[in-house]
Amino acid sequence: MADYIEIPTEAGTFDALSAGSEGDRPVLLLHGFPESAIEWREQLAVLGGAGCHAVAPDQRGYSPRVRPTEVADYRMEELVGDVLAIADRLGWQRFDLVGHDWGAAVAWTFAAAHPDRLTTLTAVSVPHPDAFGRALREDEDQQRRSEYMQVFRRPGSDRLLLEDGARRLRRMFDRCVPESHVEEYVQRFSEPGALDAALNWYRAAKFSESPGPVRVPTLYVWSTEDAALGSAAALATEHHVEADYRFEMVEDVSHWLPEQAPERLTRVLLEHLIAHRPD
């Protein structure tokens, strides 16, 4: 069972879920869109019982007390800075970093910029940003899959997703996420300004920026039925990791891996952590 904690930083106070004991192996888990820290509930429970101190924050825009209104405040350097600030506040000099969807994009960038702070990286669904950027420029399949992002970047897209009882927002989960989670997400994003802040991640994104190679042991997990992310970038990601690398392809699972296939994801995550113990 995860506990609710608060993590104060200069940017504001992040809400978070925590499992395990302080002093155990530190693991930070970053959620994706349109979710929150609760997407990691299954992983938190297992990690907390396996000798880890696992923490999953609600990230910038998702935590009510870290919800700036300017698009520029959601640039990747700000999101990476939040990870650094959270880890510093927790007293973690080195830790394992796990990210799904947008959380994976932040995790890739953090790993490239701060390899000295990480023991391992685990990215779920989203490939290395350089591989994704190239696919977005050159691969017609990925271009079609990413068309939704243009809608998300438009002003007023939050109202579009929330109209008719959040019909479009609910449909995104394609019945692959527990209904209790979906209801909690809808409730959170129905708060004034919450969904608009989360969509600012898309509006601030510059997919042409390169974080450079990753030089920490890396696990990348991609599912074959991911509607948003095709195989071109997934298969190319290995060329952007200059360290021990494991690519895990999960058959017949959608984009929502942490919640649709929690046992399978947690198993490979634990294998990765065990294979790369801290010095």
Describe the structure.
The mean pLDDT is 97. Helix 1 crosses helix 12 (262-275) and helix 2 (76-90) packs across helix 3. This protein has a single domain, classed as Rossmann fold, CATH 3.40.50.1820. It is built from twelve helices and eight strands. The radius of gyration is 17 Å and the shape is globular. It is an alpha/beta fold and 279 residues long. It has helices at residues 41-48, 76-90, 102-113, 129-138, 140-145, 148-152, 157-172, 179-189, 194-204, 231-236, 257-260, 262-275, and strands at residues 3-9, 12-19, 25-30, 52-57, 95-100, 118-124, 218-223, 245-250. The chain has an eight-stranded mixed beta sheet with strand order 1-2-4-3-5-6-7-8, with helices on both faces.
Share of helix among residues?
40-55%
**Total of DSSP H or I helical runs spanning 4+ residues:** 12
- Structure summary, number of beta strands: 8
The domain tally reads 1
The secondary-structure class comes to alpha/beta
The SSE order reads EEEHEHEHEHHHHHHEHEHH
How much is the average pLDDT?
97
CATH H-level name... which superfamily?
Alpha/Beta hydrolase fold, catalytic domain
- Measure the end-to-end span: 29 Å
Strand arrangement across the biggest beta sheet:
1-2-4-3-5-6-7-8
Q: Uncertain runs with pLDDT below 50, 5 residues or more?
A: none
Rg calculated over all Cα atoms: 17 Å
Largest sheet: number of strands, sense, barrel closure: 8 strands, mixed
Shape: globular
